[in-house]
Amino acid sequence: MLLINIVTYSRLQTKQLSSKRILIAFIAIIYSFSLTAQERTFEEDLNYVLNKKFTSADSLAKYVMKYRRDTLKMQTLLKESNQKKYFEGASFANNVLGIYFRDKSKYEKAIDYHKTSLNIAKNIGNDELTTSALNMLGVVYRRMDQVRMALDRHQMALSIAENSDVKSEHITKSITISYNSIGNIYLTLKQYESAEEYFRKALSLEEFIHSKLGLAINYHNIGYTYEAREVFDQALTYYKKSLAYNNEIDSDLGRVICNNSIAQVYLKQGSFQKALELIRTTLTTSVEIGDPYYIAMANISTGWANQELGYYSRALHHLNKGLKIAKENKLQSFEAEAYKHLSNLYAAQNNYKEALGYNRLYQEKEEQFLNESNQRYMFDLLTKYDVEKKKAQIELLEKENEIVNIQLEQRNKIFMFIFMFSLLTIAFLVILFRQKKLAGEKRFLSLEQKLLRLQMNPHFIFNSLLSIKLYMLNNDKKSAVAYLDQFSKLIRTILSTSMEKEISLADELKTMQLYVNIENIRLCNEIDYKVSIDESLDLDSIKIPSLTLQPFIENALWHGLSAKDGYKSLNLTVRKDSNDYVEISILDNGIGRERTMKIETEKKKNNTKSIGIALTRERLANFSKNFANMHSLNIIDLYNNNNPSGTQVILKIPVR
């Protein structure tokens, strides 16, 4: 009947309408009817859910989650579910309301809703709703920087989900949320490798269930682990992958998070104008979203970018605004970040009094955050212990009719235990903090002492004195005096330079010349030692840890060249590798490391690694911490027609 009416109507309009156009019109009308039929009102969805009483969280979400931003509708679902004793619906509604208030930074209210949801879910034994409530509760605690509380909830959710008999997509999603959240907690604790490990676990599951939102979240978080480790190119790659998924699902919040992170990388790379232009878009959108967490984040980033560009009044405005929002909503990490950038802002304006004041606030907030986290964690552990003990004691007391007296006694014991344990823990943390300050200096002194003992090797001193004695017995006084003069200069140089943390490269090369001269005399002057230096280098201005080259030259002389027949050469070359490095090459034409090890094995010597070189590596690592670039050390075995033809050591020292 519908087809006849459509055709009649078409003929009245125009006789020239083709059959093809009639068919298109028919399909369009049928499609519009089908859409109208599919549209459902909230009342219809509510009644359907209440009648079906779904126990699956996924089934509930299908009909209810589209109303998640309407608190009146969620309250209606909660009220109706309570009246009809539909506990799954009540738990689900409480959890959704908790998420809503979390996104408005009303954390205490959110916690109440999530706890109510959790209690209901536990009572009915629903693993899907239990893990969901635990994870969402953990997210709230994480937003409040209560990392220990958050970690406990996410770990409980993960344990329940992994051991659940229910194998649904919702359970899989709960596992990914737990992985992701635990990864974020590791980020807070600055354990970036562990964080990346959990994010990649979550990413793998998100790929399995084809969740674009989950992929967007985890790509972003992996990017942050690279940003924190200053691998900026990798960080940008992952941030842009996340942004692409957020664009696919049209998530304004996702775009705010990604663009803010990309802008922060630009700031760290020095692209300040590029960063500011990107941050401006996030500031506008974050205000439209209305979540104070992201508004504070966007304002602080905007202030940072303006400060780097020299727009100090704008920077001050946005940093103060971000700080105010962070304080009002108890966002401790953002509060600390605002203090840090305010300190930098005032320092840039030469207002060092204000800069120092904000720096102190930053340090205090960081310290307070860490201390509060530790105290909360200790309190949580003790509270759990207290609850478990009380349950066991109450059962025993009910049987013996002595509940009140024993309960009071137990409370006193637990109170004293908490008090004493807290005092001991605080004392331990204070001592640990003080000892950590001295650890670096002690380690450096230990390395220097070990190296000095190696370089003042008793065998070297004994053999040198024996050589002098032989010259004297052979009545070769001139050689004895010359050798003794060289030996005394070397010992004096070693003792004086060992007191210095670093010396000039010029002094280091002079010391090595003395060392080679003495060892060459012992080797019957068979070594052809040559030094080649790039004339463009100012050796007096280039610093190096004292006696760094000695272990490598010693190995070349006594392991590479001493056992070689024929011509023996040792070449030391110093050249400018780049503006950032000076390259030092030590090249010998000896027998090579492989043959040396065979000879030592035949002599039944211990096949151990060079202690001197190991210590030198540690000293170089410690030395490089003061520079923008790290050192590099390569030991290369040389071959000629597959036969060992020597060894080359290439050491690159940072110069700025």
UniProtKB/TrEMBL annotation:
One of its GO terms (cellular component) is membrane. GO terms for molecular function: DNA binding; phosphorelay sensor kinase activity. Residues 382-409 form a coiled coil. The chain crosses the membrane at residues 21-37, 414-433. Residues 448-525 form the Signal transduction histidine kinase internal region domain. The keyword Kinase applies. SUPFAM superfamilies: ATPase domain of HSP90 chaperone/DNA topoisomerase II/histidine kinase, TPR-like. TPR repeats lie at residues 131-164, 176-209, 216-249. The keyword Thylakoid does not apply. Keywords: Coiled coil, DNA-binding, Kinase, Membrane, TPR repeat, Transferase, Transmembrane, Transmembrane helix. This is DNA-binding response regulator/sensor histidine kinase. It comes from Zhouia amylolytica AD3.
